[in-house]
Amino acid sequence: MKNQALSNGAYPSGIHLQSLLKQVNDMLLTARALVRENGAVNYKKAKKQYGFRLRRVPSGDYGAGFYYTVTYKDPDAPKEAPETGKWLGNRVSTGTDDEAEAVAFAIENRDSVVRKYKERKAGRAEKNSGEAFYRMLREYYRDDSKYLRDDRANGKKDVVKTQRHKFDRFIETYLIPYLRENNVNTINDVTRSVYAGLKTHMLGAKGKAKGKPLAKKTINNGLMGFTRILEYHERHELITRLPYGDGEACVSVSHEDRAKTRANQPSILPTDKLAGILQSDIFFSGDHDKGEFDPVPYLLGMLCLACGMRNSEIGRLRVCDIKRIKGLENAYYLEAFNHKTKAHNREGAEYRKIPLHPFMVARLREYITSTEKGKNDYLFGKPVVDADTGETDGKVDRRLFEKAVLELYKRIKIKERLWETGDMMGALAAFDDKGLRKEMRENKISFYSMRHTFQTLLLTMYQDKVILTDYFMGHKPQQAMLANYLHINRVDEATFWNEYGRYLVDFQAQFMPSAKQAERRDFVRGYMSSLWDKSENGSVDVFEEFNRLMEKLPVPNDAEWADELYTDPASFFQKALEYNGLNESDSPDARMIREVLIPLIQAQMVKQSVERESLQDDPDDDFFDSV
Questions:
Q1: Residues 6 or more apart whose Cβ sits within 8 Å of residue 15
Q2: Which of 153-162, 249-258, 281-290 has the highest mean pLDDT?
Q3: Of the options 3.40.50.720, 3.20.20.60, 1.10.443.10, 3.40.640.10, the CATH number for the domain spanning 271-515
C-alpha cells in the first residue's frame, strides 16, 4: 500500500508536495531557533570551562548593530583553576555579531591571545626594570652588532677589537652598577645630572686589579664609549638631546694632571751618549764564540731610534716597502703604513715616507740578503690575521723589542765609544742583564724611549719645522694640518727627498759611524767571518788563533810571560812588540790581534769568571756531588 501511494504521487498522510515544502521550511526555522538556544547554553558552559566572557560593543558595521569582544582570565593564576583567576587587561574583537561564532572564536584563539598578551606585558615589565636597556649596553660593542653596523653606515670610525673589549669592561664594571644604583632603566633616564654624577663617580672609582684611583685618561676613554651609545640614540631620535654640552663629555684634565702623565711616560735616552751608537751591530746579540749573531734587535733599535717608528709599524714592514728614488744616488725611503692618519679616509694619508741614511740601507740590504727574503715577505714580523678585518698583518715578538733596547742601553752605559777601547767586549760581557733590566724599569727606559728620544732630538734640531716633525712621527694631524701631510706624500719623489727627506737623513747621521769607524767595522766583520768559515765545528778558539799569530813574535818561555798572557792579553801583546823591537805598524797581524782577538779573549775571560763565581755562590749545585 505504501509503494502504491508513492506511485500515485501522494503520501500516506495525504499531504501534497507544496504542503510538504512548507513543513520542511518550518522545521528549519525551528532548528535554527534550537541552535541559538543551544548556543546560549554552550556559551554558559564554555565561559566557565575556558575562562572567558563576551561583551557586546555597539557598531554600525554589523547587521545586529553590535559585535562581540572577548576577555580572558589568567590561565596561570596560582593555586586555583583558570576560572577563578584575574581577568587579563585586554579585550579582543571576535569580528562577529553571532554569539555562537563568537564562542567558537574565543575557544579557538584563547591560547594565542593569552600568550601574546603575556609577551607584551613581559616586554613592558623588562623595559620598566631596565633589563632591555642594560642588554643594549652589553650588546653595543659585540662583534658586528647592529649598532656598530649603523655607526659604520653613518660614517663613524670603526672601533677595533681591543678597544671594544675596553669599552665592554667599562660598561660592565663601572657604568651598569652606577646606573642601577641611580634607578636608570631607560636611555631617557640618563639626564644631565645623571651624566655629571657618572663623571664624579668615576673620579672616585678605583681599578679592580691594583686598587688605585683611575687615571683621567682611562676615565675619558671609557666615557667616550658611552657617549657613542648616546649619540646613536640621538641620531635615531630616541632621545631629544645629549645629556652634556660641548666640551662636557669628558672629565677635565688640569695642568697638574698633564704633568703627572708626562712624568709617567718613558724617559728619553741620555742624548750625550748617542753619537755613533749605531756604528756597529757586531756582538749586538747572540753567542759571538759560535758566530751566532742575530741582527734583528740591532735593526729594530735602528728603525726606532733613527726613524721614530712604532712597534706595529715595524712589524708590518715588507721588503717591498723599501723604495728607491730613481735618478738620485743612495736615496731610499720606507713607506710606513699608519693607522693614525688612515682615520681621515683620504687617499695619501694612510702612510708616511721615512728617508733612510745610506748606512742604514746597507745594513738592511745585508739582512735581506742573508735571510733570503722575497719581495713580499715581512722584514721582521710573522704573519697574523687581524681579528677585526680578517686581513693578514705582520707582528714582531715583544721580546725582540725588549732585547733591542737592552743591548742599546748596554752601550749607553759604556761611556767610551764602540771599538775605541780594547776592553769593549769584556765590558759588554760583564753586564748583569737582570740587574740592568731592573735599572731600566726604575729609570722608565723602554723600547718607546727610543721613539721619544727621536722626537725630542728632532724638535731640538729643527725647531722651526714642527709640522715636519709631526709628519715623521706619524702623529694624527688636526684637520688644519692634514693638507700639509697630503702635500708631502703627493709631491714627486725627487722633490720629497730634496725638500723634506734630507732633513731626516742629516738628523740620522749623528747615530751613524764616521768613515773611519765604518771602515774598522767592516774590517772586523770580514775577519770574524773568515774565522768562522775556517772553523770545523762552528766555534772559534780565539786563544789558538791568538797563539798562531803570536808565533811571529817570539817571547821568553817563562811563567811570568805566560801568566800575563792569561791575565792581561793587551799588555802581553804590547810587551811582545817591544821585546822584538817592533811597532804595531810593523806587524801585519797587529790589527787583527788588537781589534778582534784581544777583545774576544777579554770577553771570554769575563764570561768564565762570571761562570766560576756563579758556581761558588751555589754550594748545593749537583756539580760538586758528581766530582
A1: 23
A2: 153-162
A3: 1.10.443.10
CA dist., res. 315 & res. 241, Å (int): 44
HSE toward the beta carbon, residue 198, CA cutoff 13 A = 32
**How far, in Å, CA of 445 to CA of 451, rounded?**
11
User: Phi/psi of residue 394, each to 5°?
Assistant: -105, 140
Tell how many helices (H) and how many strands (E) occur in the chain: 30, 10
Pair 469, 459: CB distance under 8 Å:
yes
Grid cell, residue 569, equals: 792579553
For the chain, domain boundaries: 17-121, 130-264, 271-515, 542-626
Question: pLDDT digits over 171-225, tens only?
Answer: 999 999 999 999 898 898 999 999 999 999 998 888 876 678 888 888 999 999 9
Q: Where are the beta strands (DSSP E) in 116-170?
A: none
CA dist 474 and 465 (Å) reads 14
Task: Output the DSSP codes for 168-222.
Answer: HHHIIIIIHHHHHHTT--SGGG--HHHHHHHHHHHHH-B-TTT-PBPPHHHHHHH
Name the region of 15 (left: φ>0; alpha: ψ -120 to 50; beta: rest). Answer: beta
User: Taking a C-beta distance cutoff of 8 angstroms, is the pair 304, 451 a contact?
Assistant: yes
| pTM passes above 0.70 | no
DSSP per-residue string spanning 391-460: -EEEE--HHHHHHHHHHHHHHHHS-SPTTSSTTHHHHHHT--HHHHHHHHHHTT--HHHHHHHHHHHHHH
User: Beta partners for 382?
Assistant: 395
How far is it, in rounded angstroms, from Cα 353 to Cα 342? 14
Give the CA diameter of the chain: 169
3-class SS letters over 546-581 = HHHHHCCCCCCCCHHHHHHHHHCHHHHHHHHHHHCC
C-alpha cell at 56: 557586546
Nearest C-alpha neighbor of 238 from the set 287, 190, 284? 190
Nearest to 590 by CA among 513, 527, 535: 527
Closest CA to 301 of 383, 386, 378, 363: 363
Q: What is the grid cell recorded at 350?
A: 694612510
